[in-house]
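# step 3/5: fold
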Amino acid sequence: MPVFRWIPLVMLAVLPQLQAAPLTGEQAAAHVLNRLAYGPRPGDIERVARMGVQRYIDEQLAPEALPLPQDLSTRLQALDTLNETPGATLGKFLEVRAMRRDEDEAFKARRREVYSRISDEGAAARLLRAVDSPRQLEEVMTDFWFNHFNVFAGKGEVRALAASFERDAIRPHVFGSFRELLGATAHHPAMLFYLDNWVSKANGLNENYARELMELHTMGADQGYTQKDVTELARMLTGWTYRPRKLVSENETFWFDPKRHDNGAKQWLGWTIRASGRTEGEYALDVLAVHPATARHVSYRLAQYFVADAPPPALVERMARTWLDTKGDIRSVLRTMFSSPEFMDDSTAGAKFKTPYQYVVSAARASGAMPEVKRMQQVLNRLGMPLYGCQTPDGYKNTQEAWLNPDSLAMRIGLATSLGQNASIETVQAALGPSISPRTQELAAASPEKLRSALLLGSPDFMQR
C-alpha cells in the first residue's frame, strides 16, 4: 500500500514547503553575489558569509554609505562625456555631424573621433562601475532600468544623449519612487527623440511614445486598454518636446510647447480628461505609476530578472501588493523580493543563464583583473549585446532561451581563455567557491596549468547565476 495513503491531507498540503531548502552559509552568499551583484570577486563569498546575507542585502539597498575606490573615481573623473552637460555633448555631436560629406580626410577623422569618444566614454563609465564598484546592486539596477526604458544610441541625437539618460534619468532613481523615475525618463531628450514625441503635435500626432509608455514602461500588453486609449494618451502628451538649440546653449533638456498641444477633451482609460496643457501628461504619469497593472507588470519583470525566467506567480503578487501599498517605492518592492523564500530557495541558485553583459562583467570580476574596456565592448558586440545598442524599445531579453546558443557559447569560451591566461586557478577558485561544482573543479585541476582558470570561467557552471 502506498505510504502516502497514510499521510493526512493537511500534511500533503504543506509538503512543498517542507521540501523547500533555503540556502545557507557560503552557498547563500554566492547566490546573493550572483544576483544582487555581477558575481563574486576573490574573497567576496567569505566576506558576505561572515557579515550575513541580510546585512549584505541591506548594505546594497543603501549604497550611498559605500565609498567608491579612489582608482575608480579617478578613472571616472577622466571621462569628459560623463562629466559634461548633455547640451555640451550634443553641441559637439551636432557640430561634426553638420560638416559637409565631401570634406577632406582631416574633417572626416575629426567626426569619427567625436563620435567614438562619445560612445566609448559612456560604455567605459558603465563597465568600470560594473566591474569595480562596491555598490553592485546599484549597477545591476541601472542595467535593469536602462533596459526597461531602453533608448537606442544608434538613432540620431540619442548617440550624444544616452550617457546623460543613464546618468541623469536612471541612476538617481534606481531605488526610489517609480513615479519619479518614470517622469525623469519621460522628460529626457533621449527618450523624447528616440520615440519621436518631440515632433508630435495636434495636427501631426505621433503615437510611438504613448504606446510604449503603456505597453512596456508601465501597464504591459493586453491589460484591457485599447488603441483608442493609446491615441488619447498621445494627444495628452502633445507639446512634450525639447529644443536642440536651447539644449546646446542653455542646457534646457525639456520644453512644453503649448502651440503643439492638442487642447481638445480626451477619453482615456474611462476618464474624461479636460484640456490643461502639460498637466494632462503629468496626470497620466501619476495614474500609470500606481496602476495595479503596472505593479504586476514591473514586479514580474523584476522577478524574472532576479529570480527565475518564469517567476513564481505568488511572489509577483506579493511584490505587486507592496508596490501598491507604498505607491511604487522600488526599494520596498526589492526588499519583498529579496526576503522571500522563493528568492533564497536552493532551486533558485544557478537557475538563471547569464546575459552576455552579465557574463563579461562577472568574468572580469572573478579573474581579479579589469580587462581593457575596448576589448569588453568588442566582445559584447560580437555576442549580440552592444551597450546602448538595442534597437527596439523593449530592450534586451534576460532569459536563457534568448542567449543560449552554440555560437555565443564559443565566443564566451574565447573570452574565458583570454582572461584565464592572466588569472591563477587559486584566484578564480577563491572567487567562485561553491558556485563551481566539484566535478568541474576536478576537471580543471586535471588539465594543463595554463588552461585551468579558463576551464572554470568557460564552464557551464559559470554560465549560470
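# step 4/5: annotate
DSSP finds 27 helices and four strands in the chain.
# step 5/5: archive (pending)
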